[in-house]
Design goal:
There is one protein chain. With 314 residues, this protein is of the alpha/beta class. It contains nine helices and twelve strands. Strands 7-8-9-6-5-4-3-2-1-10-11-12 form a twelve-stranded mixed β-sheet. The protein starts with 10 loop residues before the first strand and ends in a 26-residue tail after the last helix. The structure holds S-adenosylmethionine and iron/sulfur cluster (SF4).
């Protein structure tokens, strides 16, 4: 459906849990996270009911995210349920990849159509600094298993590692048919407290990789590039330095049932407990009321009313 500004909103991002098996510094503190009580988390039935109404309003794409979506039991059941909804043609997952290899067969059988795997460096030491856990090799293995299974893969990187490691990460796209996408650090949750120099514009990646050639191919919110002779692509996504509100096509559902028309706004509409006509009307009204844009993102000034990404869904 169209919002009040005529933008087509056909993309729903669903956070299925606020919990996670990593502790990325820009997303969560190491200790003391206040998890949502289990009884506040939407059931798969609740999510499917809402997704079916979203599809009737013109929704076509659903992304499952978190927290870590694969940390929630039975995610493949939810994927299969979404697959059965008329109109939903894409069902993707955004994951840190830690549990992906073991769950991939079930997710593929359920009808998963794509995966975004978050990986900020190929250096194990830096990975540990960022995520406070181990995992580079496991994540790269999961990427290769997805590619071997024919699943489209995007690797998402928040560029905070040393520049030479970002260049190395972009190199994943040389011999692999995937997109490595650099997404600027945003002032959300603990990320807001990072020093100003950590908020590297994506253009810094371009400067380190002058051999990147711009492509004309449509990349959604990403500007697409390619390294000479590469099979895959490199994408730059600049929510901070180059906002794309005019092309925004999505709304977000938090794991406790709040619809967020804009990632950076503190406006949330609770859909919990609504069914039938009341749910449809609330969802349509929330989409229609999507704001034109968010204020400029500034290091040090947390947006989204202080909600960190693991409680929104990236
Ligand atoms: N756990 C999954 C993962 O990491 O892919 C899904 C949820 S995570 C919140 C989704 C994405 O948000 C990840 O790619 C992560 O890097 C990104 N993210 C988290 N906090 C961020 C921040 N402050 N700025 C930019 N991206 C952030
Ligand atoms: Fe977990 Fe993803 Fe947040 Fe990292 S970014 S702590 S993997 S939810």
């Amino acid at each position: 459906m169209k919002d009040s500004l005529g933008r087509t909103i056909n993309y729903l991002r669903v956070s299925v849990t606020d919990r996670c098996n990593l502790r990325c510094r820009y997303c969560m503190p190491e200790e003391g996270v206040e998890w949502l009580p289990h009884e506040d988390i939407l059931s798969y039935e609740d999510i499917l009911r809402l997704a079916a109404i979203f599809a009737r309003l013109g929704g076509e794409k659903v992304r499952l995210t978190g927290g870590e979506p694969l940390a929630r039991k039975g995610l493949a059941t939810l994927v299969a349920g979404l697959r059965a909804i008329d109109g939903i043609r894409e069902i993707a997952v955004t994951t840190n990849g830690a549990l992906l290899e073991e769950q991939l067969p079930g997710l593929l059988a359920a009808g998963l159509t794509g995966v975004n795997i978050s990986l900020d460096t190929l250096n194990e030491w830096t990975f540990r600094q960022i995520t406070r856990r181990e995992g580079v090799r496991r994540t790269v293995k999961a990427i290769d298993t997805c590619l071997a299974a024919g699943l489209p893969v995007k690797v998402n990187c928040v560029p905070i590692a040393p520049e030479e490691e970002l260049v190395e990460l972009a190199g994943l796209a040389k011999g692999r048919s995937l997109a490595v996408r650099f997404i600027e650090l945003m002032p959300l949750g603990p990320g807001a407290q990072f020093p100003p120099e950590a908020f590297q514009p994506c253009s810094a990646v371009l400067e380190r990789l002058p051999e990147l050639r711009a492509l004309r191919a449509p990349g959604g919110v990403a500007r697409l590039y390619q390294l000479p002779g590469a099979v895959g692509r490199v994408g730059l996504i600049s929510p901070v330095s180059h906002d794309f509100c005019a092309r925004c096509d999505r709304v977000r559902l938090t794991s406790d049932g709040k619809l967020k028309p804009c990632l950076h706004s503190d406006k949330e509409i609770s859909l919990r407990g609504l069914t039938g006509r009341a749910l449809r009307d609330a969802l349509a009204a929330a989409i229609a009321a999507k704001p034109r844009e968010h204020p400029p993102l500034t290091p040090g000034e947390a947006t989204a009313g202080g909600r960190p990404m693991h409680r929104i869904g990236g």
